[in-house]
Amino acid sequence: MPMYEYRCEDCGHEFTTVLTISEHDKTKPKCPKCKSKKVQQTLSSVFVKTSRKG
Ligand SMILES: [Zn+2]
Questions:
Q1: Model's pTM, two decimal places?
Q2: 46 found inside a domain
Q3: d(CA 28, ligand 1 centre) in Å
Q4: What is the number of structural domains in the chain?
């Protein structure tokens, strides 16, 4: 399942949450720290592909 990364605009707390695509579409997470709904989704590199260099 995809993980989404959020940052709370009220307290600055960053957290990740696991949601299905449909859950993500219809629900907005709350900050687990201050319960604020003013959260911004941040781009995270959850789906990192491992690549060999050199
Ligand atoms: Zn907060």
A1: 0.71
A2: no
A3: 13
A4: 1
Mean pLDDT (10-residue bins), the chain, 54 residues:
90 93 89 96 64 65
Give the Å distance between the CA of 45 and the centre of ligand 1: 22
Measured in angstroms, how far is the CA atom of residue 18 from the centroid of ligand 1?
Answer: 18
Provide the residue range defining the domain that includes 25. Answer: 1-30
Question: How far, in Å, from the CA of 47 to the mean position of ligand 1?
Answer: 25
- Give whole-number Cα distances, 54 to 9, 12, 22, 47, 51, in Å: 41, 38, 40, 22, 10
- What are the structure tokens assigned to 51, written together? 């690549």
* The predicted structure's pLDDT at residue 11: 98
